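Hi all, long-time lurker, first post. I run a small reading group and we've been trying to get comfortable going from sequence to structure in the token notation. Rather than ask abstract questions, I figured I'd post a concrete chain and ask someone more experienced to write out its structure so we can walk through it together at our next meeting. Sequence below, copied exactly:
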Amino acid sequence: MTNSPLVSVIIPVYNVEPYLRQCLDSVVNQTYKNLEIVCVNDGSPDRSIDILEEYAHRDNRLHVISIENQGLSGARNVGTAACNGEYLMYLDSDDWVDLDTVEKAITAMTDNSVDLVLWNYSKEYTSSSQPVKVFNHEELFTAEKYIRLHQRLVGLTGDQLKHPEQCDSISTAWGKLYKTSIIQSNNIQFVDTRLIGTEDLLFNAEVFNYCTSAFALPDCFNHYRKSNANSLTKQYRPQFFQQWTELQRRLKILCEERDYLQQSFSNRVALSTIGIGLRIASSSSSIPAKIKALKDVINTPRYQDAYANLEMRYLPAHWKAFFLCAKYKMSRSLLCLLWIMRKIINRNSKQSV
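-- Answer (accepted) --
Happy to help. Here is the structure in token form:
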């Protein structure tokens, strides 16, 4: 395309030696050539730095920044501060993208004069691929439609609650093309996961506050490597609930001045019971300890308020039963349902791998 703007691709790198070449190859071989590839070596203990330097020697568009380990959030922030592109995108170093990703995304961005472009992705297992289709066709989001997209990011509402497991399907930092000026001029940064448990949602919630338009592509450009099929049910630690409490506190602040986000935020709190509950059910704690941990969550006033305001009529029967157990503080029944969910997730994961 003529007058091609510079696009920065920010890749934090930590301990991904077996996968890094596939990631880098998918970027340096993009059909869109006007790229700045910012790789942040986050104190990686393996040979990732050697691979980065090899690629930087071959391709002068690729720049390597080495820092002491700061975690994913810190590495992304360093890369964002260093980038010079008019537009930017993030890519995790164990994932990869289709070779026409940037070309199609920048075309959608410039042709439609929007602040943000989003697309679908695929979960990549050892021997299978599972597309995650949030957008089924090209779609322009402005005015009221953008407000609905903003609501969708913060939390599911209305008939979206038919699939509560899709609550985080558009919250990732990857899978998007951003205007760099929106992020840099407003000093939007990723918050350390040690404080909030997960960083992408809060980052995008702030970005969306400064955007007024977006464009969605139906393509599954990003390929998300699922090396651990049971990542949803990883070990529960007491500080995890504290981290999500802090995440919700910060998210609430971002939503406070927008009335149209209040129901979305409330539903986000309620739906977070699923993730927290699965971690508790999968922990090595005793059954009494698991029941107590669940009680600590569902008895919390903000969770009880969220259950009271949750639009139950849209939920499938099994999810309605789940949230009724939470609403009426039936922690033992809730634990039983979580065990069933865990078995289903494990079975489906084994079939996917």
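A couple of things your group might point at:
Residues 231-352 form one domain.
Residues 228-234 have pLDDT under 50 and may be disordered.
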